[in-house]
């Protein structure tokens, strides 16, 4: 009788050991799946894995500061402007600013056309507007758009802006 009870107890220990091993495996598997699922939902990846060769990441890393370059117009733009029925005198020394050197090379190539358009823009201004900082700022923006229109017609890249080096109205 004693032999029979010992034989029956041994299989019960093997059953508990298997149950404990199965529980440990299930817990470890649940932890691994939880970590992988979290990384997947966050859109990230482990450092050093497949996400490092993303082309968009290279583009953001390649953004480099590009300094502006300038071209000065050799001669001042001189014209008359209207002021309450009287003609006044306006003289402006200009520089062109661009990030793309090709835009400045194109501006130098088409300088006669650009000068002509800028003299027209300056001559169509009102004397009272040119005496205020806001009026001069608006004139600079209008001149920038005029230069960019000429460059666009010629199929060239645009400049950033027009700068006044000297500004005289009398």
Automatic annotation (TrEMBL):
**Compartment(s) where it occurs, according to its Swiss-Prot or TrEMBL record:** Cell inner membrane; Cell membrane
UniProt entry keywords in alphabetical sequence: Cell inner membrane, Cell membrane, Cell projection, Chemotaxis, Cilium, Flagellar rotation, Flagellum, Membrane, Transmembrane, Transmembrane helix
Against Pfam families, the record matches this protein to: FliL (PF03748)
Indicate where this protein is primarily found.
membrane
Membrane topology is: Single-pass membrane protein
Please give the start and end residues of each transmembrane region: 20-42
- Note the InterPro entries from the entry: FliL (IPR005503)
The entry's family comment says: Belongs to the FliL family.
Task: Provide the function of this protein.
Answer: Controls the rotational direction of flagella during chemotaxis.
- Name of the molecule in the record: Flagellar protein FliL
